[in-house]
Amino acid sequence: MSDLSQRADELRRTLNRYAHEYYVLDAPTVPDAEYDRLFQELQAIELAHPELRTVDSPTLRVGGQPLPQFEPVTHQIPMLSIRTETDVSEQGALAFDASVRKELELSASDAAIEYAAELKFDGLAISLRYEDGVLVQAATRGDGATGEDVTQNIRTIKQIPLRLRESAGGAVLVPKVLEVRGEVYMRRDDFEQLNARQRELGEKTFVNPRNTAAGAVRQLDPKITAARPLSFYGYGLGVVEGWDLQPDTHSGILAALAEFGFPVCDIREVVQGGVGLVAYHARVAALRDDLPFDIDGVVYKVNSIALQRQLGFRTREPRWAVAHKYPAQEALTVVEAIDIQV
Ligand code: NAD
């Protein structure tokens, strides 16, 4: 037992260091697959021995501390994590469906659950607040409860509307308050071009699109952000006030976000039951190398907002969503640290 307790302690210290390098400094020193492997080992120990779980465990926390250089933003609705399914085979999708059905106390004869399946973009989560249709604040996720105010930087990203578009005929009326949550990321071709430019200038090249995008958003000088080619996909909502026609499905919300003028990824599907999730996972597996941007797996979300509410949350993640990854392609190599440049 003391060996196990020692191992849990070692994992916590290592994971907390990796999380700080990744979330706070945007400069990871190990590949994600290695972080995920250690995270799952700690989770398994804590599940078997809850008495070994401590309050500083990375399994209980979201992201990293916001940097003091930025104004803090309190998230009225926390920006949570998503549980990662440990089984990367198709069984992982079936296991998630089974867990949802169990939570909802459904029997085999009950109808299949409808899911919204989408890509897990590999970038930085952002919450965009619109009041009367105008972008007033943009914040990072930070530790989930408090993020960093990066409004001036986000304003430089051309794909993010400064004002919501009112759809023709007023079918989608602009809400009083709308927080749109989504991912800022960098396309692979933009990343290559950026590095080509760095080489021409004799400057240091960047390590990967994810950390380059995250580092670009968390700059103190918006001019630096503006010089980096960033893209955005919307995937959800935070606070909403005064939206009479708010859709009652996740897929309906994504369609409305597209109407408001946000880029929403087309590689999304509404599917029925675990079988539908398996088919989506396989479809994305076949095309992921050819995508113009990196992904970190796929995400399955229960499509009905009423069922999402019924399912609710665990400490750091909703019960109605899961991330399903693909077998890791990265070898364990030490990633060259990049400067945060703030
Ligand atoms: P997470 O696994 O908690 O998932 C939630 C995040 O997914 C959201 O905040 C959002 O940014 C993102 N996301 C992308 N597409 C989405 C979609 N369609 N719908 C909803 N959310 C979507 O995210 P995390 O805590 O940022 O962890 C991501 C990965 O970071 C982990 O899998 C881990 O491998 C990696 N990580 C690596 C290191 C390292 O040292 N290499 C350290 C910490 C974390």
From TrEMBL:
Belongs to the NAD-dependent DNA ligase family. LigA subfamily. The chain holds residues 1 to 342 of 802 of the full protein. NAD(+) binds at residues 32-36, 81-82, 118, 141, 183, 301, 325. GO terms for molecular function: DNA ligase (NAD+) activity. The gene is ligA. Keywords: DNA damage, DNA repair, DNA replication, Ligase, Magnesium, Manganese, Metal-binding, NAD, Zinc. The keyword Cell inner membrane does not apply. It comes from the Bacteria. DNA ligase that catalyzes the formation of phosphodiester linkages between 5'-phosphoryl and 3'-hydroxyl groups in double-stranded DNA using NAD as a coenzyme and as the energy source for the reaction. It is essential for DNA replication and repair of damaged DNA. The lineage of its organism: Bacteria, Pseudomonadati, Pseudomonadota, Betaproteobacteria, Neisseriales. This is DNA ligase. The active site is at residue 120. It comes from Deefgea chitinilytica.
